[in-house]
Amino acid sequence: MKISIGAAHLPAAKQQAYALRDAILSEYYSLSQLYTKSAFLKIWAKCLHANDWGHFNANSQHANKLSKKNVVVCPEVIHLLARSLCRYSFVSETEWYEFARLIYSVAYEHELALFDDEEHEYYNMEFGTPENPILLEVGPEGHNQHVVDLLYQKSSFNEMRESEFIKGLLAYAKKKRQLLSGKATIRNYHLDIYPNSGVSVASVLERAIDAGWVKKVRVYSYKEPEYKIVLTLRAVSTCLKVS
Question: Which of 64, 106, 168, 236 is 20 to 30 A from 203 (CA-CA)?
Fold first, then answer.
């Protein structure tokens, strides 16, 4: 996702980048040779989908000169930023959570306000403590696996409007069924999701929500309430580890 900000927010964004560099070096001192100030600005700009900081700066000064956008760190992109930062820093992507936690730690107040209570708790966790032991996550199973796969592989930012999700899951299951034969086999692969028989999308969605793989969030379109289906942080974490 390309991140853009208004020219007025540039000094704060640069200061945030330097704060992030310091935070990472406090835990990953081995990156000190790679992370000169200018080199880190270039790496961070690449994470924001710019060629370098000069390119990011130019976009803000000219293309977005009058824009009031002032958000770099937000729930929708923090895990993507962390994953990119690992890649450009030549660090294993299994470290993505630690990088995400450090990115979260330098977020401004107006950015932190975009995170919900669950997300605040998640990025403030210290794993390996008695309160938060490290557990082996085997990932979603059964119908839940198809729900997570659909949202992670086929959607933007791991979310879909509920109406789009319903159509998408039915189409996903139908396409997968074409590779199978026999009702028993289809049931064994948990692809027995149909519009008017078998297992309904509503039932599958309810189970996925109860299991903690997705959540339903209210949004508004032309002042009419709608819902979108969003992968939880638990689901995103699992997808990033196996991708």
Answer: 236
Label residues 218-243 b or e (16+ Cβ within 10 Å = b): eeeeeeeeeebbbbbbbbbbbbbeee
Residue 221 gets which letter from DSSP? E
Distance CA 115, CA 56 (A): 25
3-state secondary structure of 231: strand
Q: How far is the C-alpha of 217 from the C-alpha of 67, rounded, in Å?
A: 28
Alpha-carbon distance 220 to 201, whole Å?
A: 22
Query: At how many degrees (to 10) do helices 10-27 and 96-105 cross?
Result: 130
22-79 tens-digit pLDDT: 999 998 888 988 999 999 999 999 999 899 999 988 888 876 666 788 899 999 899 9
With a cut of 60, say whether residue 241 has pLDDT above it.
no
> Can you list the domains of the chain with their CATH numbers?
7-123 (no CATH), 143-242 (1.10.10)
Is 133's pLDDT higher than 70? no
Say how many C-beta atoms besides its own lie within 10 A of residue 39's C-beta: 13
164 neighbors 117 (Cβ within 8 angstroms): no
